[in-house]
Write a structure and sequence with these properties.
- By secondary structure, this protein is an alpha+beta fold.
- It folds into two domains: about 15-205, Distorted Sandwich (Beta-galactosidase, Chain A, domain 5); about 210-645, Glycosyltransferase, CATH 1.50.10.10.
- It is built from twelve helices and 35 strands.
- The strands form ten sheets. The chain has an eight-stranded antiparallel β-sheet with strand order 7-8-9-10-17-14-13-12, with no helix packed on it. A five-stranded antiparallel β-sheet has the order 3-6-11-16-15, with no helix packed on it. A four-stranded antiparallel β-sheet has the order 1-2-4-5.
- A hairpin with a 4-residue loop joins strand 13 (about 150-155) and strand 14 (about 160-165).
- Helix 5 packs antiparallel against helix 6 and helix 6 crosses helix 7.
- The longest helix has 22 residues, at about 345-365.
Length: about 650
């Protein structure tokens, strides 16, 4: 049972990720054994307490910062001789890595020789992350001395810590390792700790393999924020990679750390889609892994990709992420083909995409709208947009591969478009808005939220064309104005629910917090539809927010209105890193550059945002048609290809 205090907060934690390894630390650098502190592997905490004392005193923390997606550095000082003045005598530097290693360096800053007793207190509960999150973790376990360290065991797990150099003394009853440090003036001593699941090999993260599925893209240009932001995003995506246990060659993205370190189908597909400019290997691995989970027939769920329910806020019942994943599957396959997925892999995955599209046709049957959850849930605005996009891109894919069924999909999509423009549009004095949903009895649910951005996300067809939208031109213009207005734009990004809505809560994860994924979809969709001012406003807000988060955007943060001198408020339960947030950076920058590939046709179209909101922007290390691709956008909004595959032509 979850404790009254809820999830342990993560907003001040430094989270090192190289899945399946995690290391979560507070800003002091000491692992206290409280909250989420610890080294983890595969969702189990191997070490919860690692406290350093020199001459009986803890170092005074002076700095804590991430040095990479998988490592953090902590610096502390000690003043051991008050009679010598206010200056510290010893500097303690700790480098902690998600692979289970910690390197501690002690430097003598004094002018005299120092002999220092060092103690490191270690313990663990070997608890599962879910139990820690719910407040059900057990007590610390007794330790035994083993080799050059300590060991802990339960009936189901065991862990050990070894030290180099070996300690002079080890006290299992107190969980202590002891050394005597001998430091001459300006001298240093190093102690390295290694945390392992007992009997396990050293951790090798998927993203650290020699053959990585994501290209190391880089950005440069007038805006100094884009380079570190893209670099951090790509590093976070690498850190969140997982392998399918039964098929190790297939990789996909975990949803985020620390709470969602496993497969979440809708998030994995959405992140792989936004990361297509980094190559198609991640998309292929994600699609293969999820194709194996499709529900077999017969039955109404045949072809569906299972997924859990997801809270939709206070105004709608929980939605089904399985519906979203099933609709995303053919979209990702169709767009991956445009970015350069080999025809052989397309053919391999096509039957699974066809089963998703058959599920869509069977589920809507003679109706128009797709309810979620089935069978008697509301018809959500975003579900109609996702189903419409799946139908159009799925039909395009079927035609390209000479498979039947495209005509029926386009006919249903046309009927949905006609019905949606009248049935889902709510007229008012401001020009109207799309309903968030239609209730099962047909009543419109009128609140304005960020889910409406899916209406702008129409998907990429052949020849660099975007699919026509569900809304007409006038309705799209009204929606763009609403998304760019102060009720939705917090100045840092798009609120999940408009600030004028009765249920608005700036920290509500579906009712007012800024969600980075949907903000990025808005930037890309508005830019593609020609609403550059609104797109630029949301983009620059997110860039400014990223500066306050150390260039590592969380999945969400507080939706308080931005004001002079203010900073975005962290959400205490947000994942950081999060796959969709990291991939959103790739989406936004490539949308500003206007890259629209059609690898089967051997062309790529560049249609950058003409106002050049980031000034000059260069993107290198992308991949189109299986080869490196680089583009530069000038301050005048003109784009030039600087590197591309042989034979790839610039389309019109």
């Amino acid at each position: 049972m979850r404790t009254a205090s809820g999830l342990p907060p993560t907003h001040t934690a430094l989270i090192c990720v190289a899945l399946p390894g995690l290391a979560i630390s507070g800003e002091s650098g000491q692992l206290s054994g409280r909250g989420l502190d610890g080294f983890y592997r595969g969702g189990r905490r191997l070490l919860s307490r690692c406290q350093v004392r020199v001459a009986g005193r803890e170092p005074l923390a002076v700095q804590a910062r991430m040095t990479a997606a998988d490592s953090a550095r902590f610096v502390g000082t000690l003043r051991l001789s008050p009679a010598t003045g206010p200056d510290p005598d010893v500097v303690v530097e700790r480098t902690r890595c998600a692979d289970g290693t910690e390197r501690i360096v002690f430097r003598n800053a004094a002018l005299r020789h120092l002999r220092l007793p060092l103690e490191v207190a270690l313990s663990t509960d070997l608890a599962e992350l879910g139990a820690i999150a719910s407040g059900a973790a057990g007590p610390e376990l007794p330790a035994t001395v083993r080799d050059s360290g300590l060991r802990w065991t339960t009936t189901s797990a065991a862990a050990c810590v070894t030290a180099d150099p070996p300690p002079a003394d080890a006290l299992a009853s107190a969980g202590l390792l002891r050394w005597e440090l001998d430091l001459p003036p300006s001298g240093a001593a190093v102690v390295e700790l290694r945390v392992r699941a007992d009997g396990a090999a050293p951790l090798r993260a998927v993203g650290h393999a020699s053959s990585r599925p994501l290209a190391p893209a880089r950005a440069a240009g007038d805006d100094p924020r884009v380079a570190p932001l893209l670099q951090a995003a790509v590093a976070d995506l690498q850190a969140l990679l997982l392998r399918d246990p039964a098929h190790p060659s297939d990789t996909y993205l975990a949803a985020g750390a620390p709470w969602r370190c496993g497969m979440a189908p809708a998030d994995a597909l959405a992140a792989a889609r936004m990361a297509l400019p980094l190559g198609t290997r991640l998309a292929a691995g994600t699609l293969r892994a999820l194709a194996r989970t499709q529900l077999p027939g017969p039955g109404p769920g045949t072809g569906m990709i299972p997924g859990p329910r997801r809270d939709a806020g206070p105004l709608l019942p929980p939605g089904c992420t399985g519906t979203e994943a099933t609709l995303l599957f053919p979209v990702l396959l169709a767009e991956a083909r445009r970015w350069g997925l080999p025809e052989q892999e397309t053919e391999e995955l096509l039957p699974a995409a066809e089963r998703c599209l058959t599920w869509l046709r069977t589920t809507v049957a003679d109706g128009t709208y797709l309810s979620d959850p089935q069978p008697a849930g509301p018809a959500r605005c975003e579900t109609q947009a996702q189903a419409y996009r799946a139908a159009l891109l799925g039909a395009d894919l079927l035609d390209a591969c000479a498979r039947p069924g495209a005509t029926e999909l386009r006919e249903w999509a046309g009927a949905l478009r006609s019905a949606f423009r009248t049935g889902f549009w709510i007229d008012d004095h401001g020009g109207g808005r799309p309903a968030a949903a239609l209730a099962p009895d047909g009543r419109p649910v009128p609140h304005l939220g960020s889910a409406a951005v899916h209406l702008l996300d129409t998907g990429l067809l052949g020849s660099g064309r975007f699919a026509p939208g569900l809304l007409d031109k006038v309705q799209t213009e009204h929606l763009a104005r609403l998304l760019g207005g102060p009720a939705m734009d917090a100045g840092w990004g798009l609120r999940g629910l408009g600030s004028k809505e009765a249920a608005h809560n700036p920290f509500g994860h579906r009712s007012g917090a800024v969600r980075v994924h949907e903000s990025a979809l808005a930037v890309a969709g508005l830019a593609a539809a020609g609403y550059e001012r609104e797109a630029a406003g949301l983009l620059t807000g997110l860039l400014e927010a990223a500066d306050h988060f150390g260039h590592r955007l969380p999945e969400m943060f507080g939706g308080e209105q931005r004001s002079a001198g203010s900073a975005p408020l962290p959400h205490p339960a947000a994942c950081r890193p999060a796959a969709t947030a990291a991939a959103s950076v790739v989406l936004m920058l490539t949308a500003i550059a206007g890259i629209r590939p059609d690898a089967p046709a051997g062309t790529v179209i560049l249609r950058p945002v003409s106002s050049a909101p980031l000034g000059e922007l260069g993107l290198t290390g992308l991949r189109v048609a299986g080869a490196p691709f680089a583009v530069r956008v000038s301050r005048l909004g003109l784009a030039m290809v600087e590197e591309a595959a042989d034979g790839l032509q610039l389309g019109v």
